[in-house]
Write a structure and sequence with these properties.
The complex is a heterodimer. By secondary structure, chain A is mainly α. Helix content of chain A is 64%, strand content 2%. The longest helix of chain A is centred in the N-terminal third of the chain and has 35 residues. Chain A is globular. In chain B, helix 5 crosses helix 9 and helix 10 packs antiparallel against helix 11. Chain B starts with a helix and ends with a helix.
């Protein structure tokens, strides 16, 4: 599963989409073959059966397993039924499990705050620059940008692992002191505060906790190791979003651009007052795809940092896997997955609400 | 030089920034800036692959001494095939992993295209009870990411006894809501008259489907095949879950990812870079051959969304 790279049919309001599809189907044709109903069921049943077994049943089982105390080895439904205990431990009890979950939420929050705006901005700029009429070599640039999106997330993770070594390409290119990218668990906000002389938490931040994590720890920023994963993911996803923006830009009528140009609008004015407003639906679409995708980051963390150093790249998605398969806490893993599901669904619903009135996109 | 001249000239009528010569000059400057930005990003996106390619042929001492150089240091024994020779040993089994990836990708794609085409046709054209219910369910279910289903997915495979087998690697990936959604979209575009004509000529439903409709949705079949090949070849999480204790059915992404930390501090970077590129190259070939369809895929998914 590649995270943010695959644009799915996810976008847009479900109801709007169904309405549109219904319309596109009009007028319905009459039954023209014998026993169409029977054939219909014969045609859909293999796919339907598989989706029930491998998708629908697992959804139900997720919830059931999360209400038990199951380690992952014994038959699951012989394990003890514990009701909402797993959820209570994750959200309300002051313990290491809640702390790990809080750390994973913090890490992913900073990851989202970093990746989504940056990838959207770079993709939009590249698309706008690439969309100029007189530009030559368009297909070369488009190909170069999109190529990383279609490669294996694990293969590019290994290449970045190589480049982020202390003596690797990234440090060689940066005109600053070498950084131990992948072993540095310090939050970058803490680091920046350290530069201006704030080395210790103010008392109120140290002493106040939320979900077993002090406010000072919440305010750490992404760790340096997480920053390198953010750079990698941005590098991978920009191409896809650039293509989506390019498709959107091509829908802006040329006359609008030309009118603005004739009126003497500068490049920036045209970008700010013509392109951005007209691209708003596409921008909303890309941001919401980004929000949904960034909460699922897994492959890169597995291959590069495995949650470390010092849990600073732990995310809810990775924690689900870790608790289930490395820690023998399958029920806890399932509970984290259910909570993660609600986070992702919240963004999906938000997206659909934002795009509720849009006819296109 | 023209600009300096024109700037010196007194201009009473047109302001400086609207004079044709200035505009031409600004236009050129804008083009220069555009190309610079585009080239900079093109390098950022391409160079990691180039560096990986060069590093595959370096000796380990050369990589340790010059990890960023794109040139071979002859004194340190580069270029060499040492890295490539290690692609098949007791820990790194690239040929085996590649074979597994190929078997998985081929089987999943055949299955996915067949099932998605049949289901897409039925949902688009055949009139039967429950059609809208099924279609809505397909759309709702396919929005759920695999990561939140890892535990029960694993459990289902265990119960079916397909863990650690090729069946487990292949079967669950065949069922994909997005493929059905996509094929239904392609069938929706075929005019109804086509089928009616076939029916009048006495074709059965199956004949209409296989001889008349299938050729008409060929672009869809190609696009779906390519998307499925790319998605399956790069699939990591499911392949990881499906082979918890059978190293013989690891795919390329799983095998590569599990190499992390296997070597402590002394990673054989030349071999690892070569293995990464071997994972990348088949998709590069597919991509450059069928680029058009990738672009259409992205455009379609954003337009449909």
């Amino acid at each position: 599963m590649t995270t943010a790279t695959k644009p799915t049919a996810e976008a847009g309001g479900l109801r709007a989409r169904l309405r549109k599809l219904q319309q596109s189907n009009q007028p319905q044709r009459a039954q023209i073959f014998n026993r169409e109903g029977l054939w219909g069921w014969i045609f859909v049943s293999p796919a339907l059966l598989g989706m029930i077994v491998f998708l629908a049943i697992p959804i139900g089982m997720s919830v059931l397993v999360s209400l038990r105390d199951w380690g992952g080895i014994t038959p699951p439904f012989e394990s003890e039924f514990v009701g909402a205990d797993n959820y209570r431990e994750l959200l309300f009890d002051d313990n290491i499990r809640r702390k790990d979950f809080a750390i994973s939420l913090r890490n992913n929050l900073y990851y989202v705050l970093g990746v989504v705006p940056v990838q959207t901005f770079i993709a939009l700029i590249l698309a706008v620059v690439l969309n100029q009429k007189r530009l030559k070599g368009k297909s070369f640039f488009r190909t170069a940008y999109y190529f990383p999106s279609i490669t294996s997330s694990i293969a590019v993770s290994l290449i970045f692992l190589f480049m982020f070594q202390t003596r690797g390409a990234v440090n060689a290119l940066l005109p600053i002191q070498d950084i131990n990218w992948l072993v540095n668990p310090n939050g970058i906000i803490h680091n920046l505060l350290g530069v201006v002389g704030v080395d210790e938490a103010p008392g109120w931040m140290e002493n106040n906790e939320f979900m077993s994590l002090s406010l000072w720890e919440w305010a750490s920023g992404p760790s340096v190791a997480m920053l390198s994963i953010m750079i990698l993911v941005t590098w991978t996803t920009v191409g896809t979003f650039m293509l989506i923006f390019l498709a959107g830009l091509q829908n802006i009528p040329v006359s609008v651009e030309e009118a603005a140009e004739l009126d003497g609008a500068s490049w920036w004015q045209r970008f700010r007052f013509v392109t951005v407003p007209m691209m708003k639906p596409t921008i909303v679409f890309v941001i919401s795809l980004g929000l949904i995708g960034t909460w699922q980051v897994f492959d890169q963390i597995f291959a590069i940092s495995f949650g470390g150093p010092q849990k600073s790249t732990l995310t809810p998605a990775f924690l689900t896997y870790f608790q289930t398969f490395q820690n023998g806490e399958a029920s806890l893993g399932a509970a984290i997955a259910v909570l993660l599901f609600f986070i992702i669904m919240a963004f999906t619903v938000l997206q659909r609400w934002l795009m509720r009135d849009k006819d296109r996109l | 030089m023209t600009t300096i001249d024109s700037a010196v000239e007194p201009a009473r009528q047109t302001p400086f920034f609207q004079r044709p010569s200035t505009r031409r000059w600004l236009g050129r400057l804008k083009m220069l800036a555009s190309y610079s930005i585009l080239m900079l990003f093109a390098l950022l996106f391409i160079m990691p692959f180039v560096l990986a390619g060069v590093s595959s042929f370096k000796s380990l001492p050369d990589i340790a001494a010059n990890p960023t150089s794109l040139r071979f240091d002859r004194e340190l024994g580069s270029p060499t095939l040492d890295g490539l020779n290690q692609l098949n040993n007791d820990r790194i089994r690239v040929p085996r992993w590649a074979l597994n990836s190929a078997i998985q990708t081929g089987s999943v794609t055949i299955g996915r295209v067949m099932l998605a085409t049949m289901a897409g046709y039925a949902l688009s054209r055949l009139r039967f009870r429950g059609r809208w219910l099924i279609f809505s369910a397909v759309i709702a279910v396919q929005a759920i990411p695999l990561i939140v289903l890892v535990v029960p997915r694993f459990l289902v495979m265990k119960e079916l006894g397909i863990l650690n087998t090729y069946w487990g690697l292949i079967l669950p990936l065949i069922f994909d809501g997005f493929s059905i959604f996509m094929m239904k979209g392609f069938f929706d575009l075929v005019p109804h008259e086509v089928e009616e004509a076939a029916a009048i000529d006495g074709a059965s439903l199956w004949q209409t489907y296989s001889r008349v409709m299938m050729p008409l949705v060929k672009p869809g079949l190609i696009a779906l095949t390519i998307l499925s090949v790319q998605g399956t070849w790069n699939e990591f999480l499911h392949s990881l879950l499906a082979a918890p204790s059978n190293p013989d059915i690891r795919t390329l992404p799983v095998g590569l990812a599990l190499l992390r930390g296997a070597f402590g501090e002394s990673n054989p970077w030349n071999t690892l870079m070569a293995a990464s590129l071997i994972t990348t190259i088949p998709m590069a070939v597919v991509f450059f051959t069928f680029q058009r369809y990738f672009r259409q895929g992205v455009a379609a998914s954003s337009a449909k969304g």
